[in-house]
Amino acid sequence: MTPFTAAKPFARILGGILMNDSSRSSSRSPVLAIFGSLVAGAALAVALTVTLASGGSEPLVTGSVLFAFGLGWGLMTLLSTRFSAQPQAWTALPAIVLGSIGLVLIAFQPGPAVMDVLSWVWPPALVALAIWMVIQVRGHLRGRSRWLVAPVIATLLVFAIGGGLATISAAASSTVPSATGRMIDVGGHRLYIECTGSGGPAVILQAGLGASSSSWAGIAPAVAETTTVCSYDRAGHGRSDEAGPQDGVALATDLHTLLERAGVPGPYILVGHSSGGPYVRVYAARYPEHVAGMVLLDAQPADAFTALPNYPGFYSTFRTVATLSPSLARIGLLGPLLGLSADESTLAAARGGRDEFLVLPTALQQSSALTSIGDRPLIVVTAAAEADAGWVAAQDNLPRLSTASVHRVLAAATHNSLISGADAGASSQAILDVVASIRAGTAIR
């Protein structure tokens, strides 16, 4: 099915709106036909994205959007031919090109490697198509009709330029050396780990959802002055290889293998921020003998979907955003639209963040397996400022994981300021307090 043929039922509906009496078509301009077609294509793209493509792969999302806009151009061909005095037969070409590519992506859903190769092809092809469309517009449209189509063509050029720059940037970044850390094979993929300082117990830093080891830049140096501290990138984040969706158990297995092969002796002080909290709790449940203590920095509770009244709605909305992330990263718009750093807005990071978010409910459920770490020291740090409804109350349950725990509620701290803002010092101090408690064999002060 081509977009042109698929557009026929929609053409009949829109045609009735555009023209009550088709006998007067010779007096009609193509403005309404163009406007209605563009709106229909955009509306279908949104509908497909939030329904059929939600939670799907990048080819499914991109293919759905391309097919929808191809259908819009097909509608433009039919409606302008039947209901205006200026038939726009040239619009059949973008309809067929965009729609057919969309159908191919939906049907075959090529993997990341194929999509990466295609990224060297489609930006210049899209530029050529846009230039051809500009020539057609200048030759076939007049007045307001031009102004309706011009923004669409300009958007195609923005996508092409953004896609080209994103492809070049990704190729260049793949050759960047791995700073002072190491890449270690954990079984089918490699993870990046960076350890500084000396002595024990070693502190293992677990970043939040979608974040990488670089997020600990404000904390790791302070901890390294006292003991060994290691930050690492989960699969699909930072410098680490991609590995597809991984639940909490898979992440814990990866980390266990990584620390073993990196030669970092345990037991460890596990530190988790945000969704990194459930990840370290899954690790502690599976490898209790490797846990010396724990620090939870505004960590997500296992019962987030029931304890936080707004969380189910947030998750549903952000699920769509996460699904769109790889497609947006592909055209270089993820960072500008969401305000992400260069490391967080790469295509690999977008895929990793999407995969991680989609399996987060499973990881939360798995983290509930940890009911106690005994009398090993635990400090829970909670950021009360801007906290969602139910968040602080849910944090009150976390200290129960240890009989030697302390709960520090920081009234002026925010979720992010604990690791990258003014309150990073308080987080560093919490870690150092657990180190001191273990070394001295005394209670946390």
For the secondary structure, the number of strands is 8
Portion in beta strands: 5-15%
The whole-angstrom Rg is: 27 Å
The average pLDDT value, as a whole number, equals 89
Residue stretches low in confidence (pLDDT < 50, at least 5 long) are 13-27
Strand order of the largest sheet: 1-2-4-3-5-6-7-8
Task: Write a structural description.
It is a single chain. Helix content is 54%, strand content 10%. It has an 8-stranded mixed sheet, with helices on both faces. The longest helix is centred in the middle third of the chain and has 30 residues, at 144-173. It is built from 19 helices and 8 strands. It starts with a helix and ends in a 5-residue tail after the last helix. It has 445 residues and is an alpha/beta fold.
What is the fold's blueprint, element by element?
Blueprint: H1 3-6, H2 8-18, H3 31-50, H4 58-83, H5 92-108, H6 112-118, H7 122-140, H8 144-173, E1 182-185, E2 190-196, E3 203-206, H9 220-224, E4 229-233, H10 248-262, E5 268-273, H11 276-286, E6 291-297, H12 304-307, H13 311-330, H14 334-338, H15 347-358, H16 360-367, E7 378-383, H17 391-395, E8 405-410, H18 417-420, H19 424-440
Parallel strand pairs: 3-4, 3-5, 5-6, 6-7, 7-8
Antiparallel strand pairs: 1-2, 2-4
Key terms:
eight-stranded mixed sheet, 8 strands, 445 residues, 10% strand, single chain, elongated, alpha/beta
Structure at a glance:
The protein is an alpha/beta fold and 445 residues long.
